[in-house]
Design goal:
Layout lengths: L2 H10 L12 H19 L7 H25 L6 H26 L4 E2 L2 E2 L6 H29 L3 H23 L5
Antiparallel strand pairs: 1-2
Helix pairs in contact: 2-3, 2-4, 3-4, 4-5, 5-6
Length: 183
């Protein structure tokens, strides 16, 4: 197994931090591009969304997360850690997206009417896969918190708090960019 793949394996298993990754802007660019494309495709699986809209959403989300990471690192006078921290963050997101694709394919489309889930239309397979999806989400949260913890010199709880703040900010910004939704 190539050393960088071993490092990413250990990152998602919470055994290492992003400081163990090579400082490589090329690696970051490849990871970011792959992550944007894979996330865009993955988002079209469970929801009725077009690939173009999904690609734009993934691009904006990735850029906002990287900008927030840069700002957080600079605020703590740790700007020199950006490339490795960003590579760790984007790489973890890419890995978890790849792990989630088969689960999303097995799960199928989310039963929606007027933008709301229709509980009566949820299949037994979807019910069985829901705890797995939750567990994978918690694992991803822990892995990203681990990257942030190492990058920003925080506790694991501090890394989790940063993630929740980013989620709130990202949701707000994406909703402002998307504009009002009809419903």
């Amino acid at each position: 197994m190539p050393p960088v793949v071993e490092i990413f394996r250990d990152l998602v298993l919470l055994r290492r931090g992003p400081q163990d990754l090579p400082y490589s802007t090329q690696l970051l660019a490849v990871l970011a591009g792959a992550c944007i494309i894979v996330q865009a495709v993955a988002r079209t699986i469970p929801a009725p969304i077009g690939l173009g809209e999904s690609l734009l959403s993934s691009l904006i989300e990735t850029l906002l997360v990287l900008a927030a990471l840069r700002l957080a690192l600079r605020a703590r006078d740790l700007g020199s850690r950006f490339v490795q921290a960003a590579s760790g963050l984007v790489g973890c997101n890419l890995i978890f997206t790849l792990i989630n694709i088969p689960v999303a394919l097995a799960f199928g489309k989310i039963p929606l009417e007027a933008g709301r889930i229709v509980p009566e239309q949820i299949t037994p397979t979807q019910m069985l896969l829901s705890p797995l999806i939750l567990a994978l989400g918690i694992w991803q949260l822990a892995a990203i918190a681990n990257v942030l913890r190492h990058s920003l010199n925080l506790s694991l709880a501090g890394g989790i708090a940063v993630i929740f703040g980013w989620i709130a900010l990202l949701s707000l910004l994406l909703s402002l960019i998307a504009g009002p939704q009809g419903g």
